Structure formats: C-alpha cells, structure tokens
Amino acid sequence: MNDIPAPIPSTYTIRPATELDVAGINVIINHEIAESVNNFNYGPRPLEDGLAWFRGTIAGGYPIFVATTTTTAAGASGEEVVAGYASLGSFRSKDGYRFTAEYSLYIHHEHRRRGLGKRLLKDLLIEAKVRNYHAII
Questions:
Q1: Residue 102's Cα: distance from chain center in Å?
Q2: How many other CB atoms are found less than 10 A from the CB of residue 2?
Q3: CATH (one of 3.40.50.2300, 3.30.1330.10, 3.40.630.30, 3.40.50.1000) for 13-136
Q4: Whether residue 73 has pLDDT greater than 80
Q5: Most buried residue, 9, 29, 56, 57, by most Cβ within 10 Å?
Q6: Measured between alpha carbons, how far is 99 from 58 in angstroms, rounded to an integer?
Q7: What's this model's pTM, rounded to 2 decimal places?
Q8: CB-CB contact of 102 with 86 (8 Å)
C-alpha cells in the first residue's frame, strides 16, 4: 500500500458550505453510520435532520467547510459533488469552555488518501482562530 497520499487534484475546491451541500454531506454521514464506527448514530440521517444540523451550526456561529469536485461519471458529468466536510460545534455549555469547540471531519470514501482531510482541517483551524477559539477538540 502506498502511504503517500495522492495530491489534491486541481478539481477540488474548499469553500464554506451552503444548504445546497447538505444532501452531499448526508451521503457521507450515512455511509459512515452504515459502514464504520466513526459516527455514533445507528440509523440513516434524514435530509430534514441534516438541514436542522446545518442551520443550527450556522446559527450558533460555527463554520462548516466542504471539499467539492466535479464528477466525470457517466450520466453525471459536470455535477459538483461534496467530497468531504469539516465543521466546528459546541463542545460544552459551561462558561469555561466558551473558547473551545469540537470539530467533525469526514471524507467521502471514494475521495480518501488525497490530502483533503488535511486541507479541510487546516482551513477549519484558521477559521477557528479568526473566531477566537483557543482549543479545538
């Protein structure tokens, strides 16, 4: 196995997420729920729950970034797809944790080992500093 990740193709873009990205984020989350132990949910997350999570995260003042690419699969040529995402959220509600945030980072299983996680985390940590978070868990 090659331990050196493939470089990020120029077709990947990291940007702030929008509500239009929630369906793609849900594809990633639902795969993790079904195929891994990386998420502590037991059933698929409905789109409505994904939208509620997105709106609550943004309303709480936390960022969500997505890595996107343009697919070249047959029948879907030229469509933008979410290849990964990273977000910050509340860690604990006690005052002593007001400068602490919890991060989530997931990469679509077909887009792993390309450095996307590293790049998403880097952008997320830069944004955390801008928002005056001192500790990321």
A1: 13
A2: 6
A3: 3.40.630.30
A4: no
A5: 29
A6: 17
A7: 0.84
A8: no
